[in-house]
Amino acid sequence: MPAIPPPETPRAGMILAASPGLTDPNFARSLVYLVSAGPDGALGFVVNRPLGLPLEKLPLARDLPDPLPQMTAHFGGPVRVEGLSFALFQAGATEQEVSCELVEEPARLLPSFGRPGHWPKAFMGYAGWGEGQLEAELARDDWKLCPPSPALFELPSPGAMWEAFVGPDQRWRSFWRRLPAHPERN
Questions:
Q1: Interacting residues of 17 by C-beta distance below 8 A, sequence separation 6+
Q2: Most distant CA pair in the chain: distance in Å?
Q3: Under 8 Å CB-to-CB from 26, ≥6 apart: which residues?
Q4: Strand partners for 143
Q5: Is the pLDDT at 1 greater than 50, yes or no?
Q6: How many Å apart are CA 171 and CA 73, to the nearest integer?
Q7: Where exactly are the structural domains of the chain?
Q8: Strands, E, within the chain: which ranges?
């Protein structure tokens, strides 16, 4: 019997798509952008769970310069949900590259607003894995490793992107930019 190849090694810039069988409410139907991954563990943000609240409604987001208070807060993961993290996602050289920079000073996000291929985000909490934990979850098929897509950051309803990432038909990656920006207006 041929050996089953090991799953691709998780690395920064990849998306973890929760398998349909993953029932943990923190991660069911989630897409996690891996900010860092290595032998000591991994850190990421759930990127398809906007909370539907502007930052100005959160007590921990006081004294932010405009337009940051109008940003939508996202559930980033179950670790330190009482904290707020800021990140700048940027399109890469190809359609399957998106980088992420953690931003300690939120005002540094201001020049990115309105710039094509730049997506400032705010997260309550983050996802974290200790040494070997993510690899064990991948071996159990809890997650599917996927290349990122700018669609996850540009389209208005990221919650609906989970099906696209876990499905076998990946043709959407080549034509998503042709989709209407506001399909509800059609």
A1: 30, 31, 143, 144, 145, 146, 162, 165, 166
A2: 62
A3: 46, 77, 78, 127
A4: 18
A5: no
A6: 30
A7: 15-185
A8: 15-18, 31-38, 41-46, 50-54, 72-75, 79-91, 98-103, 118-129, 143-146
Written as six digits, the tokens of 18 are 């929760």
Q: Rounded distance, CA 166 to CA 31, Å?
A: 9
How far apart CA 38 and CA 131 sit, in angstroms, is 8
Contact 60, 84 (CB under 8 A): yes
The residue with greater pLDDT, 174 or 102, is: 102
pLDDT in tens, 89-112: 999 998 889 999 999 999 999 999
Q: What is the pTM of this model?
A: 0.87
Cβ pair 45, 32 in contact under 8 A: yes
At 183, list the tokens: 């399909």
Task: State which fold the 15-185 domain adopts.
Answer: VC0467-like (3.40.1740)
Mean pLDDT over the full length of the chain: 87
